[in-house]
TrEMBL record, chain A:
<keyword id="KW-0456">Lyase</keyword>
<dbReference type="Pfam" id="PF00330">
    <property type="entry name" value="Aconitase"/>
</dbReference>
<keyword id="KW-0028">Amino-acid biosynthesis</keyword>
<dbReference type="GO" id="GO:0009098">
    <property type="term" value="P:L-leucine biosynthetic process"/>
</dbReference>
<keyword id="KW-0479">Metal-binding</keyword>
<feature type="binding site">
    <location>
        <position position="409"/>
    </location>
    <ligand>
        <name>[4Fe-4S] cluster</name>
    </ligand>
</feature>
<feature type="domain" description="Aconitase/3-isopropylmalate dehydratase large subunit alpha/beta/alpha">
    <location>
        <begin position="7"/>
        <end position="456"/>
    </location>
</feature>
<dbReference type="InterPro" id="IPR036008">
    <property type="entry name" value="Aconitase_4Fe-4S_dom"/>
</dbReference>
<keyword id="KW-0411">Iron-sulfur</keyword>
From TrEMBL, chain B:
<dbReference type="GO" id="GO:0003861">
    <property type="term" value="F:3-isopropylmalate dehydratase activity"/>
</dbReference>
<dbReference type="Pfam" id="PF00694">
    <property type="entry name" value="Aconitase_C"/>
</dbReference>
<comment type="similarity">
    <text>Belongs to the LeuD family. LeuD type 1 subfamily.</text>
</comment>
<keyword id="KW-0100">Branched-chain amino acid biosynthesis</keyword>
<keyword id="KW-0432">Leucine biosynthesis</keyword>
<protein>
    <recommendedName>
        <fullName>3-isopropylmalate dehydratase small subunit</fullName>
        <ecNumber>4.2.1.33</ecNumber>
    </recommendedName>
</protein>
<dbReference type="GO" id="GO:0009098">
    <property type="term" value="P:L-leucine biosynthetic process"/>
</dbReference>
<comment type="function">
    <text>Catalyzes the isomerization between 2-isopropylmalate and 3-isopropylmalate, via the formation of 2-isopropylmaleate.</text>
</comment>
<dbReference type="GO" id="GO:0009316">
    <property type="term" value="C:3-isopropylmalate dehydratase complex"/>
</dbReference>
Length: 466, 200
């Protein structure tokens, strides 16, 4: 039977079949401060060791300051968690990139930068946005802390195979449309739980033409459709990105690896449990209006009415979301003022995102009514942006240029919003209270976020493309 | 995990809404701990309290209603536990006193996290949930019997059976140490590693 990309990567990692479950080998394990301390404590209680410290890499990202390199800049509780990570990594021989290290960054930004993620790998992390790494044709998914402990101890996980979903984005994107708009449009089409129980493969001309960073943006938000993971088959774009990175294979190993990686694609005639088709040309700049990422519209469309939804659950969700967001059916979002703009996160904190936002930023000044921050996804992104003078463009326009970290995507540090604030955010979740209790989050692309900063309200980024 | 899960009898609290995400179950400001305990007091913080310091309970939030005090079964709707992978969510639910969550559907990572914490997630159909919500809203004292070995939920004259994977059921009932089980397969894991290419 013709195999899918997912079948191939899965089968290459089955250590043992345990009834209905497979014991799956994990090639790469990324850890950070928030979801690992209890896992290490569990190991220590039972005097267990990390089986493969050489396959395990740590970084500090979630609960760190973006204004200061001091480990206690966000209070003693955050500091304790960060110090606990450092102690655990040291005791168990795990390589850690702590705050201030030049290779430190958001786990899903720094991992690929270092060449830690290779096609065909299995990758896990105690973070739901681990799906990011599927952009390389890896099987990458988020896990809970008990599973983090299981992987630390055994380098394996018990897993049952998910269903498969093929999402074809056909044709070419219109000018001004980004990877963020594609994935938001996909989630809008299939719904916030539309891919629950599935591993998605993204394919089609529009996906194939994306850079690696854009593919990472797409795969990153697979979880926002409920998917276990999202994957893109590796190709020359993938190999060019990986080649020469610190942990990538070299010499004859590289040749052997590429030969294998070229086999990692779904075969003709492979069947998927679900197939979704989108036409790239139909996608407008996307903006969420509600409190889950599936509640999204094109910037030129009116906010829907609860009655527009035939499904009773969606109707009730829409009613609740409109009340929380302070919006009414029929509102045009380009008339809605914003108080804050956040550009960054594991979804949109890479160099191409910085460039896209800077392209808009240099066309004006941040409105007086807006606080706008730009948070590079890693030390490497920050240095590259500064070499290109992007930091200067941002600060000249009135944006704050910060230190790398997860920042306002989830606000585990002091980058949080107040009740009633309205934020144009390049992050991945617009849940109630996500960026601060009572705060209202609208998910957009980096260019759309920058445009909102200049206008003081949402704007159609296509007006800035000349 | 030492004690196993078999039959649970308790009253239910009806949280009648879809897409309850893990940010709502336990917001980010409570994720800075380094232990697995003490999260229950922050469960549903934004909905449960009118103030940031957890001094003023929100009387309109269902979990705070006196008739549901002491409930050990949480009812909810579609896509419960969506969002972040934070295991603090099941830790908070269990620490608060919930032993079972019955909902129309669950997000995948959350479901697995429940299994790993002896918190039983049960998915029932939309119409079955309607009936269960109706029964609990009509009678907050209704005793519900959740029988994991028999895979049934019995609430008054309602009886529903539910699906659960055999190994999930087995691990919950026996309270097995999953890592200890896998460590017994170490030689098989070593054989697998020996076959991996050198460049990995």
């Amino acid at each position: 039977m013709a195999k899918t990309l997912y079948d191939k990567v899965w089968e290459a990692h089955v250590v043992d079949q345990l009834g209905e479950d497979s014991l799956l080998y994990i090639d790469r394990h990324l850890i950070h401060e928030v979801t690992s301390p209890q896992a290490f404590a569990g190991l220590n209680e039972k005097a267990r060791k990390v089986r493969r410290p050489d396959r395990t890499f740590g970084t500090m990202d979630h609960s760190i300051s973006t204004r200061s390199l001091a480990i206690d800049a966000c209070g003693p509780q955050n500091a304790l968690q960060l110090k606990t990570l450092a102690t655990n990594c040291e005791e168990h021989g795990v390589k850690l990139f702590p705050v201030g290290h030049q290779k430190q960054g958001i786990v899903h930004v720094m991992g690929p930068e270092l060449g830690l993620i290779l096609p065909g790998m299995t990758v896990v992390c105690g973070d739901s946005h681990t799906a990011t790494h599927g952009a390389f044709g890896a099987l990458a998914f988020g896990i809970g802390t008990s599973q983090v402990e299981h992987v630390l101890a055994t380098q394996t996980l018990k897993q049952s195979k998910a269903k498969s979903m093929l999402i074809n984005v056909n044709g070419k994107l219109a000018v001004g449309i980004t990877a963020k708009d594609i994935i938001l449009a996909i989630i809008g089409k299939i719904g916030h739980a539309g891919a629950t129980g599935h591993v998605i493969e993204y394919a089609g001309e529009a996906i194939r033409s994306l850079t690696m960073e854009e593919r990472m943006t797409i795969c990153n938000m697979s979880i926002e459709a409920g998917a276990k993971a999202g994957m893109v088959a590796p190709d020359d774009t993938t190999f060019e990105y990986v080649k020469g990175r610190e942990y990538a294979p070299t010499g004859s190993d590289w040749d052997a690896a590429v030969a294998y990686w070229k086999s990692l694609h779904s075969e003709d005639g492979a069947t998927f449990d679900t197939v979704v088709e989108l036409d790239a040309a139909d996608i407008a700049p996307q903006i969420t209006w509600g409190t889950n990422p599936g509640q999204v519209i094109g910037v030129d469309a009116p906010v829907p009415a609860p009655e527009d939804f035939s499904d009773a659950v969606e109707r009730e969700s829409a009613r609740k979301a409109l009340a929380y967001m302070g919006l009414s059916a029929g509102d045009k979002l380009d008339a809605v003022p914003v108080s804050h703009v956040f550009i960054g996160s594991c979804t949109n904190g890479r160099i191409e995102d910085m460039r896209a936002a800077a392209f808009i930023a240099k066309q004006g000044k941040v409105a007086d009514t807006v606080t706008a921050i730009v948070v590079p996804g890693s030390g490497a992104v920050k240095r590259q942006a500064e070499e290109e003078g992007l930091d200067k463009i941002f600060t000249d326009a009135g944006f704050e240029w910060r230190l790398p970290g997860c920042s306002m995507c989830l606000g585990m540090n002091d980058d949080i919003l107040q009740s009633g604030d309205r934020c144009a955010s390049t992050s991945n979740r617009n849940f109630e209270g996500r960026q601060g209790r009572g705060a209202r989050t609208h998910l957009v692309s980096p260019a759309m976020a920058a445009a909102a900063a200049l206008k003081g309200r949402f704007a159609d980024v296509r007006e800035f493309q000349e | 995990m030492s004690q196993g899960f078999t039959v649970h009898t308790g009253r239910a609290c009806p949280l009648d809404q879809a897409n309850v995400d893990t940010d709502q179950i336990i917001p980010k400001q409570f994720l800075t701990g380094v232990t697995r305990t003490g999260y229950g007091k922050h469960l549903f913080h934004d909905w449960r309290y009118l103030d940031l310091h957890e001094q003023e309970p929100n009387p309109d939030f269902v979990v705070n209603k006196p008739e549901y005090a002491g409930a050990s079964i949480l009812l909810s709707r579609e896509n419960f536990g969506c969002g972040s992978s934070r295991e603090h969510a099941p830790w908070a639910l269990a620490d608060f006193g919930f032993d079972v969550v019955i909902a129309t559907s669950f997000a995948d990572i959350f479901y697995g996290n429940c299994i790993n914490n002896q918190l039983l997630p049960i998915a029932l159909s939309s119409s079955q949930m309607d009936a269960l919500f109706g029964a609990v809203k009509a009678n907050a004292d209704l005793e519900i019997v959740v029988d994991l070995p028999a895979q049934t939920v019995i609430a008054g004259d309602l009886t529903f059976s539910f699906d659960i994977l055999a190994h999930h059921k087995n691990n919950l009932i026996k309270g097995l140490d999953a890592i200890g089980q896998t460590l017994e397969l170490t030689s098989t894991i070593e054989e697998f590693e020996a076959k991996q290419p050198a460049w990995l």
